[in-house]
Amino acid sequence: MITISESAADRLKEMLSQQETPNMFLRLGVTPGGCTGFSYAMGFDDQESDQDIYMNVQDMKVVVEKENLRYLDGLEIDFEESGMTGGFTIHNPNAIATCGCGSSFRTREEAGVPDKEC
């Protein structure tokens, strides 16, 4: 299960409403790389495949590839504002290590493929 806070959902819905393509939804995923081995992918999409599962979170359609769900199960997404800045934050109970900025991670079972430039 994936949890999205009310503040994050409000921000995402606002961003979705500005998309020119109809029927967009939030796609979450994982790609190899980042400083720690895996990087989060979060964006809008309008294409689904038979490899996807979808869920309704905070009245939003959220899609995740079945293969990535093992990394994202229990994921919590929030949006925090701090002064003139703000951004999405991710808490992943599957991660045993994260990079300093929080955009990459590794799990107990898999180290991923860290970028050599980090």
Strand and helix map with partners:
Blueprint: E1 3-4, H1 6-17, E2 25-33, E3 37-45, E4 52-57, E5 60-65, H2 69-72, E6 76-82, E7 85-91, E8 95-98, E9 104-107
Parallel strand pairs: 1-6, 2-5
Antiparallel strand pairs: 2-3, 3-9, 4-5, 6-7, 8-9
What's the gist of this structure?
The protein is mainly beta and 118 residues long. It is built from two helices and nine strands; from the N terminus they run βαββββαββββ.
Description:
With 118 residues, this protein is mostly beta strands. 14% of the residues lie in helices and 46% in strands. The chain is built from two helices and nine strands. The protein has helices spanning 6-17, 69-72, and strands at residues 3-4, 25-33, 37-45, 52-57, 60-65, 76-82, 85-91, 95-98, 104-107. The strands form two sheets. Strands 4-5-2-3-9-8 form a six-stranded mixed beta sheet. The chain has a three-stranded mixed beta sheet with strand order 1-6-7. Strand 2 and strand 3 form a beta hairpin. The longest helix has 12 residues, at 6-17. It is globular. The mean pLDDT is 88.
Which range best describes the helical content: under 10%, 10-25%, 25-40%, 40-55%, 55-70% or over 70%?
10-25%
Give the number of DSSP strands. 9
Mean pLDDT over the residues: 88
What is the structural class?
Answer: mainly beta
Q: Biggest sheet, in brief?
A: 6 strands, mixed
Radius of gyration, whole Å: 14 Å
Tally of alpha and pi helices: 2
Detail the poorly predicted runs: none
Record the strand order, biggest sheet: 4-5-2-3-9-8
